[in-house]
Amino acid sequence: MILSGLIQDGFASSRLIAFCAISESGNLDYCRLILNKTQNTNLFSWNVAIRGYSESENPKEAIFLYKQMLQSGGLRPDNYTYPLLLKTCAQLSVIMIGYEILAHVLQLGFDSDIYVHNAMIHMLIFCGELGSAHMVFDESPLRDLVSWNSIINGYARSGKPSEGLKLFREMEMNKIRPDEVTMISMVSCCSQMEDLNLGLEFHRYIDEKGLKYTVPLSNALMDMYVKCGSLEPAQVLFSKMSKRSIVSWTTMLIGYANFGLLDSARKIFDEMPEKDVVPWNALIAGYVQCKQGKAALALFHEMQAKNVKPDEVTMVSLLSACSQLGALEIGKWIHHYIEKHKLALTVALGTALVDMYAKCGNIRKALQVFQEIPGRNALTWTALIGGLALNGLAHDAISHYMEMIDIGLVPDEITYIGVLSACCHAGLVDEGRRFFAQMSSNFNISPKRKHYSCMVDLLGRAGFLDEAKELIKRMPMEPDAMVWGALFFACRIHVNVQIGERVAEKLLEMDPRDSGIYVLLANLYREAKMWEKAREVRMMMKERGVEKTPGCSSVEVNEECFSR
Fold first, then answer.
1. Is residue 530 part of a domain?
2. Is 440 within 8 Å of 411 (Cβ atoms)?
3. Residue 479 included in any domain
4. What are the coiled-coil residue ranges (predicted)?
């Protein structure tokens, strides 16, 4: 073409530019060279080159190419140029450049074009400007199915499912027929709200309207059923899929793991035709969730053997496994791995490290990591407060809690478990009463059974047995064995047989096979010198076939955990 002079023909050169820009065997550098060297380049050539860069690994070059086109003069962008540029801004999340391009769109009057209009909404949503996107949507008479899908998906992606559902109802009133893309957003909203009944309603709607079960739609439905705690419909959908993506397999794996069906989860994992880091993380997290820390660590060794590169999520799960096992040396190795491979110390990863060190008894290292974490959040402070309490540093736990409140962070239920436990360890009754009251009065947190258990333990240990008993009576929910157990233990400490007998009855109603209750009751009678009663309890154990449970301990040797 160069030798014949055809390269200077606008139509001929545009075909070559298109080939270089968007064909599988194309070359974007050569495409750029032709653009720069050719005279009379037409708008099609610039647009197709911008498209090529927008779909490449270096999409920001599409923006630079657009600026070059403007500087070359003589050509006016059209309604094909701007959707490509707005899509690129969305991909790169460059809102300021996006606004500059929007200004050009408005200046040239292309905002009345439906394709440009939809691209504007899409760009604003992906750049986190949902309010502005909704304003553009509301103020324009141009609305097709894509417009509705974009704004509804924006709310679903932003964790605002109620608003997304409201827009769907409005869409129905406007006689716009939903498609598979709409249903993906709606099902996602149901997942976020964990509303199984609404999810079933949309599933029926899909069948009634004869919509196609695309892979993304089937994945969204499976995810909804898993998150709503209904595994069987997810299994049915999975079995009917003729084509499955890695998301399909991973969703089913997570479903089995969430239900504690780890053998089924492992079977799915082994059957997967391809695996990236996500399914590995899902199965490791499943083992951790089911308190099988050893299995989680073993799977990580498999992951390394397969040369799958772990990420932050992997490390957080492994540190949780170490926390469960009390495996400090393995936890230290994971910390070294994080530093060696230069994984960023994010808040989530830092919090997991603080929690691991604290639960494994190295509170000094937990404090050191805590100080190194940039942008500590409430979860980080909570992990440290709980760790300080666990390690008997009650006053330090409380001072960190006070500091957390002073800097404006909001505590949650777990924070207060740590604070009340600290009060319990140190016998700080007045402080415990005050913090327990603050939960509802200052932070609108309704105490759960665990909080009541801490308070009963605190009051009971200090000898306020009647107050502890009254607190249990005022509980808005049925007390569990942990709450009654705290009071029973206090009765043993203070040799209060009258309350202790009644509490023991409650505990034996809940679990008549628990040998510990019989042993504690017999010991209570012995300490009160009620020898006959103690013998009766021992006889009752024998008659009921209850045997004393042997103790169990765990120890870490050469980075392996052993129980005995």
1. yes
2. no
3. yes
4. none
How far is it, in rounded angstroms, from Cα 197 to Cα 226?
13
Q: Is 293 helix (H, G, I), strand (E, B) or coil?
A: helix
Distance in angstroms (rounded) separating the CA atoms of residues 511 and 298: 35
Task: Determine the average pLDDT of the residues in 78-86.
Answer: 93
pLDDT at 562: 46
pLDDT tens, residue by residue, 460-471: 999 999 999 999
The domain that contains 459 carries what CATH number?
1.25.40.10
* Four-residue CA torsion sign, 181, 182, 188, 191: negative
Buried b (16+ CB within 10 A) or exposed e, 55-94: beeebbbbbebbebbeeeeeeebebbbbbbbbbbbbebeb
Burial class (CB in 10 A: 0-12, 13-18, 19+), 49: buried
Q: Check: CB of residue 13 under 8 Å from CB of residue 23.
A: no
- In this prediction, residues 155-164 reach a mean pLDDT of 94
Rounded distance between C-alpha atoms, residue 160 and residue 150, angstroms:
14
Do the domain assignments include residue 461? yes
Residues 6+ apart with CB under 8 A from 249: 268, 271, 272, 279
Could you give the CA distance from residue 369 to residue 150 in angstroms, rounded to a whole number? 42
Instruction: Give the strand pairing for 560-563 and 554-557.
Output: antiparallel
The β-bridge partners of 560 are 557
At residue 546, φ and ψ (nearest 5 deg) are -95, 125
Domain count, the chain: 1
Query: Do residues 297 and 317 make contact, with C-beta atoms less than 8 angstroms apart?
Result: no
One-letter amino acid of 91: Q
For 21, the token pair is 């820009």
The boundaries of the domain holding residue 477 are 447-553
3-class secondary structure, 563:
strand
The sign one gets for the Cα dihedral 64, 70, 71, 73 is: positive
**Alpha-carbon torsion 288, 292, 293, 296, what sign?**
negative
115-136 pLDDT per residue, tens: 999 999 999 999 999 999 999 9
Half-sphere exposure of 558 (CA within 13 A, CB side): 0
Q: What is the DSSP string of 115-144?
A: HHHHHHHHHHHHTT-HHHHHHHHHH-S---
CB count in 10 Å sphere of residue 374:
9
Q: How many residues does the chain have?
A: 564
Backbone φ/ψ region at 463: left (φ over 0), alpha (ψ -120 to 50), beta: left
Are 380 and 351 a contacting pair, CB within 8 Å?
yes
Residue 95: predicted pLDDT: 94
pLDDT digits (tens, 9 = 90+) for 515-539: 888 888 888 889 889 998 889 888 8
In a domain, 529, yes or no: yes
449 compared with 541, residue with greater pLDDT: 449
**What letters, b where the CB count within 10 A reaches 16 and e where it falls short, cover 248-275?**
bbbbbbbbbbbeebbebbbebbeebeeb
